[in-house]
Specification:
Layout lengths: L9 H10 L17 E3 L26 E4 L2 E4 L12 E2 L2 E7 L10 H10 L4 E5 L26 H16 L3 E7 L6 H4 L17 H4 L1 H17 L8 E7 L4 H6 L4 H4 L5 H16 L2 H8 L16 H4 L5 H12 L11 H4 L6 H32 L5 E2 L10 H4 L6 E6 L22 H5 L2 H7 L7 E7 L10 H12 L3 E8 L18 H4 L2 H10 L11 E3 L1 H9 L5 H10 L13 E3 L5 E2 L14 E4 L4 E6 L2 E6 L2 E5 L4 E5 L7 E7 L10 E7 L2 E4 L11 E3 L7 E3 L16 E7 L4 E5 L4 E6 L15 E4 L2 E5 L10 E7 L1 H6 L1
Parallel strand pairs: 5-6, 5-12, 6-7, 7-8, 8-9, 10-11, 11-12, 13-14
Antiparallel strand pairs: 1-26, 2-3, 3-4, 13-15, 16-17, 17-18, 18-21, 19-20, 21-22, 22-31, 23-26, 24-25, 27-30, 28-31, 29-30
Helix pairs in contact: 2-3, 6-14, 9-10, 9-14, 12-22, 14-21, 18-20
Length: about 800
């Protein structure tokens, strides 16, 4: 590794060694053979010791109420005023709760809250409260009953209110989701008729964005929910999301979903709003026709029709033409296009382009009116300063910055290898994944998320996961924590802790963290890294200033990843920039221009975190946190430097994380926690003795995978996504080496309670010439995913 040879002076040597310190050497052969596994279960209720991060939290008081000031989340302080000296910055590291998991029994609520606190969690996202109305009370699955919307399940309300109090005592905020999955019913709720089963995405249909009856009912729901949960000016309420994943902009951008937005009975309402918008903009429909050089429908005397995606074709303004060209053949574009003002000068838009721009801005304004209307209710009921957002940025993309103009923060979602159900969710015994790796091929997708940030507001990723049974899934935790810290984001919420409430589950299920112990073991460390500032934020902004016309052009593009293409052309911003500067956008009144600091010399940026696209390896080298993640490794070293080479195979996907327990720099720390993330699977039901469930190719092909069917479901293509315990983790045959000031170390494998097991033999855990040499080759019966490391000065030991 270039520049890794320590130079003169112990401090300089320590710094250089830290920057290059973490090495993983695979002693087993790199092959496609299945790696060795071992059974492991975390006892969450009795977890303590090194993996317990409860100390990060204190009970929430009135002074801990979260507000937005200076573009970040801050606690309001004892004076109750935002923007004063007693405010403090707070970052949110949270997790989602879904369906029944929101409603634990009264006696279980404190226990669940303590479990979450041990993971370093300081917020939970109350998700899918409204999705599955029912009469069940033990447990409830929704806060609603099947009665006319909104009819509240009194048992669910009581349990959730009690749970929120228990969470607050453990220093855990709540993120309240309003509309997630409730489907309005014409025969019961009084909305116009539509056939939900004919819609592509019935849970996401944006008819609720503009239908007056639907909006009025949502106002009643929001008001009643906040009152019933006693959240007025509550320090427990961190933020509110109006609508999980739905907008008119999003439906228009997905042509197959536009029909979801305008069922026949709803078309007149949206058509009327469109024509009223045109009159406000132009003064009359005739003036609009003149601007467009056309009068669709034949005459301005009648209502001008809505645009369907098929009506528009490919936008062809110069800026969007550049998007198309960049997307089609990015590698052949001349670098001189970047920032070339002459090439980016505006040209007069054609009538067709103006009509398209107007329609997209109308959709954004209609979305904005809906968000603003619900936000007013939230602020009236919960307090004027509670942070509110509309929907997540992928549902509307760049033009959401216009629809979210009056929102307090921006939200996004991110998934790697989301499972696919070929026959729909109704057949949960036929699913497949591609075992895709974030480090292997998906890092570029993080650029889309990072670019969607509004630089003037807090930024939150309220859902992310690389879900079970992806074998590289553990890598997402240290990578997302590092990226969020470097980009100076304000919140991360893992999806999820669980959607079926079961306090005893010892195996992974669906998207749950609980039972997915190969991820779980790195969660607390990742929380600590993000929340405490152990990883410093980047010092440069690499953002774009765009006007609403440019945002509309991006929204109209049919090209793949148009925002990335636009960023490359305008600001020379690519995937590598994720680790060079803080990314995002601002909405300006002038034409799209790069910000003055987009030309920051990459050589001036530190190399605390980096991604090697050739080696497909992520590396973190902060003084107080080291991480290495990838798909397989072979490495060499000498006495003064380290070299890590990644061999991309299926043999050993790895995620290695090393952090201090005493808040010291790693080279000087006397107590450290090492975790080895890995893929997790459950056991094949009925196997004696229990054995890990096997990966098999899915018959649909395309290099997709699934898990072998359960024996009690003959004829199925896939096993259940809710695994049978015990869970199995992959062994980690690695050798670690890092610089230390200690003379001696003792390394304790930890059990599922975080308790020390017998230490490793001295020949496998030693200090030589100022470096720790740690051999973690273990037989499955002695393997562990985490290790507590105690470093000592040998001379001091002898004096005792």
């Amino acid at each position: 590794m270039k520049g890794c040879h320590p130079r003169s002076g112990p401090l300089r040597q320590s710094i250089i060694a830290l920057a290059c310190a973490l090495i993983a050497l695979a002693w087993t052969s790199i092959s496609n053979a299945a790696p060795a596994t071992y059974a492991f279960t975390v006892d969450e209720d009795n977890l303590n010791g090194a993996p317990d991060y409860s100390w990060l939290n204190t009970s929430l008081e009135a002074s801990d109420r979260i507000v937005v000031h200076g573009g970040t989340f801050r606690t309001i302080g004892a004076d109750g005023l935002a923007g004063t000296s007693d405010d403090r910055r707070v970052r949110i590291y949270g997790i989602n709760l879904s369906f029944s998991a929101n409603f634990p029994k009264l006696q279980d609520a404190p226990r669940i809250a303590r479990r979450l606190r041990k993971l370093g969690i300081n917020a939970v996202r109350l998700h899918h409260l409204d999705t599955a109305p029912g009469e069940a009370t033990d447990p409830p699955r929704s806060i609603l009953t099947p009665g006319p919307y909104p009819s509240f399940n009194t048992e669910a309300v009581a349990r959730l209110r009690h749970f929120i109090s228990a969470l607050a005592r453990e220093g855990i905020y709540v993120n309240l989701n309003l509309h997630v999955g409730y489907r309005f019913r014409p025969d019961i709720d009084g909305v116009p008729p539509f056939k939900a089963n004919d819609l592509v995405r019935p849970l996401n249909t944006p008819i609720i964005v503009y239908d007056e009856q639907s909006i009025a009912l949502q106002e009643i729901y929001a008001r009643e929910l906040i009152r019933r949960l006693d959240l007025n000016r509550s320090p427990a309420l961190a933020m509110v999301e109006i609508n999980n994943e739905s907008s008119l902009l999003a439906s228009w951008q997905e042509p197959g979903e536009w029909g979801d937005a305008v069922p026949e009975a709803y078309q007149p309402a949206l058509l009327q709003k469109w024509n009223e918008w045109l009159v406000r903009r132009y003064g009359s429909r005739e003036a609009a026709c003149k601007a467009w050089q056309d009068c669709p429908g034949g005459s301005a005397s009648s209502l001008l029709p809505l645009l369907a995606p098929a009506d528009t074709g490919q936008p062809s303004s110069l800026a969007n033409e550049l998007i198309r060209k960049v997307t089609r053949k990015l590698s052949t574009l001349s670098p001189s296009l970047s920032g070339n003002r002459e090439a980016l000068d505006r040209v007069p838009a054609t009538g067709k382009q103006r009509r398209l721009r107007d329609f997209l801005m109308f959709l954004a304004d209609t979305d904005r009116a809906y968000f603003d209307r619900l936000a007013r209710v939230v602020r009236q009921e919960a307090g004027e300063q509670v942070p509110v957002t509309g929907t997540q940025m992928s549902y509307g993309n760049a033009l959401n910055l216009a629809s979210h103009r009056d929102m307090d923060y921006i939200d996004a979602h991110f998934y790697v290898d989301h499972p696919h159900f070929p026959q729909g969710l109704a057949n949960d015994r036929n699913w497949r994944v591609w075992d895709t790796s974030l480090t292997g091929s998906q890092m570029r997708r993080l650029l889309d998320i990072a670019l969607m940030r509004d630089m003037r507001k807090p930024f939150v990723v309220s859902e992310y996961n690389q879900p079970f049974p992806n074998r590289q899934g553990a890598e997402i935790l240290p990578i997302m924590a590092t990226l969020a810290a470097r980009q100076d984001w304000d919140g991360l919420f893992f999806f999820d802790y669980g959607d079926i409430f079961d306090t005893t589950s010892g195996a992974p299920g669906n998207f749950a963290l609980r039972g997915d112990w190969g991820k779980y073991v790195q969660f607390g460390q990742s929380a600590w890294m993000f929340r405490t500032g152990a990883i410093p934020a980047l010092g440069h902004d690499r953002s774009l200033s765009l006007d609403t016309e440019a945002l509309a052009g991006i929204a109209a593009s049919r090209a793949s990843a148009p925002l990335q293409a636009y960023a490359r052309v305008l600001g020379n911003i690519g995937v590598e920039t994720l680790w060079q500067g803080r990314l995002g956008m601002t909405v300006s009144a002038s034409a799209a221009t790069p910000r003055p600091d987009t030309d920051t010399d990459p050589s001036s940026v530190d190399d605390i975190a980096s991604y090697d696209p050739e080696q497909k390896t992520f590396t973190l080298r902060a003084p107080r946190a080291w991480a290495l993640a990838g798909l397989g490794i072979a490495a060499g070293n000498d006495t003064s430097s380290l070299r890590a080479l990644v061999d991309v195979t299926e043999a050993f996907p790895f995620s290695i994380l090393l952090t201090p327990l005493d808040n010291e720099e790693i080279s000087r720390s006397r107590a450290l926690l090492l975790s080895l993330g890995s893929g997790t699977v459950g056991s094949q039901p009925g196997s004696v003795p229990p054995r890990p469930k096997r990966w098999i190719r899915h018959p649909a092909g395309s290099y997709s995978w699934t898990l072998e069917p359960d024996p009690n479901h003959p004829g199925s293509l896939s096993g259940s996504r809710y695994a049978t315990p015990p869970a199995w983790l992959t062994t980690a045959p690695v050798h670690l080496r890092w610089a230390t000031h200690a003379r001696k170390i003792t390394v304790y494998p930890l059990d599922g309670r975080g308790q020390r097991l017998p230490p490793l033999e001295p020949e496998r855990a030693r200090v030589e010439a100022g470096f720790v040499e740690l051999d973690l080759r273990q037989a499955p019966e002695h393997a562990s995913p985490w290790y507590e490391i105690i470093a000592r000065d040998q001379a001091a030991d002898s004096r005792r």
